[in-house]
Structures are given as C-alpha cells and as structure tokens.
Amino acid sequence: MRRPGSRRAIRRRGSRVSNLAAGLIATVVIAAVCYAVFGGTLPFSGSPFVLKAVFTTETQLALNSPVRIAGVDVGDVAGVQRVAGSSQAAVVTMDINSNGLPIHADATAKIRPRIFLEGNFYVDLEPGTPSAPTLASNATLPAANTAGPVQLDRVLSSLNAAARGNLQTLLQGLGAALSGQPTAAQDATQDPSVRGLTAAQALNLSLKYSAGAFESSAIVNQALLGSSPHDLSGVVVGSERVFRALGARQDQLASLVSTFDATTSTLASRQQDLSRTIALLPPLLRASNGAFSQLDASFGPTQTFARQILPGVQQLGPTIKVALPWMAQALALVSPSELGGLVSSLTPAVQDTSSTISSTETLLSGSNQLARCLVHNVIPTGNAIIQDPPDSSGIPVYQELFQSAVGLAGAGQNFDGNGRYLRVGTAGGSVPITTGPLPFQGPLHGNAVLAPLGTRPAWPGQPPPLRSDVACFKNQPPDLNDVRTGPGS
Fold this sequence. Notes:
The chain is about 50% helix and about 10% strand. The chain has 14 helices and ten strands. The radius of gyration is 62 Å and the shape is rod-shaped.
C-alpha cells in the first residue's frame, strides 16, 4: 500500500536539466560538428603528416583540394600562403594520410586540372624513389621539385599573329567539318543510324552511350590502380622491361607485325565465319562453366590422393637405393655363367620334349576316351543290382563278380598239385538230366534228386548290343534286369 506523499517524494528525487544548461550543451555539440565538417582536427585523432611545397607560379588551389598519388587520394590541401615580395609564389601546406607515406627527399609535386581546359585543380604528388631519404612531417619541397599548371591564357599569349591566324583557320575548318552536310557517297559508307546527319549531330548522338562508356572506363581505371600500393608502378616497370626487350629485337618485332597483319587480314576475309564462331561462344562458355565446376569439385579428392601418395613418393628414393644392389645380383644371376649356362644345357632336353608332345597328346586323348567309357558305361553297369527273386542278393554286380570268383577258386582248389578243376559227383534220383551236345563228346546224361534251377539270370542268347563304330561312352549301358530266370533257361 503506497503511503501518502510517495509520488511527490519520487518526483523530488529525479533532477531536471535547466533550459540554460540544455542550450549550452546543444551549442557545444553544434560547434563541434561544424568544426569537424569544415576541416578541424578531432581530439585524440593524432597529428597528420604535414608536407609543404614551394610553387613559383600561380597555384589557384583551394582549401581541401585533393592530393593524389597515381590517381589515388592520399590527402588534401590544408593551406595556401603567399610568399612575401612575390605576386605568384606560394607555399602550399598538405595533410597526407597514412596510405600516401612514406615520402622521400626527391619527391615532386605538380598542380594539374581535374577537368578539360581549366578549373578544379589538384596536387599530383610523386613520393620519390625508395633509395632517397625519407622526409619527416613539416618538411618542405623546394621550388625545383614543383611545377604549376599551364594556363590557357599563357599558351595563347605565346602565339604570334601568324600562329593565331593559323589557329583561327584550323577552328574554322573544324567547325565546317562538324556542321557540313555529308554527300551521298559519304553516307553510303556510314552506319545507318548516322546517315544524313552532320558530324556534330553524330557526335551529339553518341553522347547517349557516353555515360555507360565513361562508367566502364572508370571501372577499368580503378582496376588498373591495383589492389595495393605500387601495383601500377610494378606494371609500368614490367611494361618497360617488355618494351626494352622488344626494342632489342627489332627484326623479330617487324616479322611479328607482318605476321599479325596477315593474321588480321585473314580474319577480316572470314568475318562471317568469325561472327558465327563468336555466336557459338556463349553455349561453349556455359558448358565450360559446368565442366569447371566438376573440375573444381575433383580438386578435393585429388588433393587427398596427393597427400596420401606423398609418403609413398618419399619412400621411392630409399626403395630405389635398396633395389639397385638386388638388380645387380639379378643381372649376375641371369648371366651366361649362371642361368644362361643352365638354359644352354636344358635346350636339348626341351627340344626332345617337344617331339613327345604329339605322342603324349594321343595318349591323353585315349586316356580320356577310356575314362569316359568307365564313367558312362563300366561303372554304372558294375553298380547295377540284378533283381532275381526270390533269392536276389541285393548287392551290385561288381561285388557278385568278385564273390563268384572267390567261390570258383574255393570249389576248384586241389590238394595234389594237379591244377584246379571242378569235381562234380552225380547221385541217383528221379529227375533225369541231359545236357546239350558238348564239344568232342556229345551230350551228358544223369539223374538228380531235384530239378536244376538253371542259369540265374538266363542267357538271352546274344550279348547286349554294342556299336564299335562310335566311342564307348556313346553306347547305352545294358539293362541287366531285362532277362529271364528260372529252370530251363
């Protein structure tokens, strides 16, 4: 809760500036601004570099006229003081900024007009050569190092009557040339935009392009000044060296001019082709910009690759140094006394080996045929299982073959050393047995207790079909289960 009288207490606590104090503060501020605007030196800004120059001719410089070095503003005129006892000599005081330093003892100062004819002058300062001593602030350039502007009235006063008459004639001829109407023959060779116009009218018409031309020229001139001091002087020095070299080679220069004239003549004769070529340049430049973008993007990986390959390049020298002894030993190894002699000894063996290639090729071809026959015919036939119920063995044919050989060997073994043969004993029975005719003795007769089971499986009467006019592996393996079994077979 606010106490009574609190608002009044707050107002008393804040002090107001009186009208008199406010007016004094505003007057001081305005005076300081005017002092700074009209060339006064601000406090704490430091003293500028002061350069004085003695001119023996009328300067026509005003305060704050610019001081330039190679077209760049580096200061301004701070004062012009007439020399006592002279109507034209004066001492010009200039404040030079830091971008115009240093200034040497052989520096020169010239007063030049900023516009054509007369008016609006400036000081063109040449800072001198670096080998000369450096001037300190408040130093004065003597009259021998300065030059004033050449006034137009002085030029005219130096002309005599005959020269002035010739000048009048020149001006009259120039006026007639500018204001005279062109003839039809003259118009025929002119640009269509200026046909029928006088020279003055054509010049006036060109003024609408002057603003852009002057702006572009200003940009070019500004660029020619360079990005740092002494850039332009460096260009001048370099150009002087180039021209000196050209002057020392006059014969070659004459040949260059002749060749250049022939080149320009050829280009002039192919003006239409050159125009079409220039018209095709914009698409080429656009495509080139895209290619340059991709090329610029490849610089990063290229730099990375270069950094990664640099250690390998650094080790290349030591590697070569180590490899040289190895190469020397390798050369000694392949010399005639080492591997060369071994090759000479092996040459007859290699020649004889070549004669066996044909026989080896025949052997390998036959081995291939045999292997394919085994794979496609013999092995599948040996792995087949004959189904002969009711007493099928259930084992492959090749195992039955080996087991039958073992059984025949057991049945035919002998104890008296007279060789192996089978002994068959006959016994009486109710089943008569008669064999077919046997060589040299005819059929055999006998009786058996049980009827013979017969050949298992039955002999089909002829061997499986086999074609000898084709390779073995091209024949079909026989079907061993396609036979008859049982008695009488």
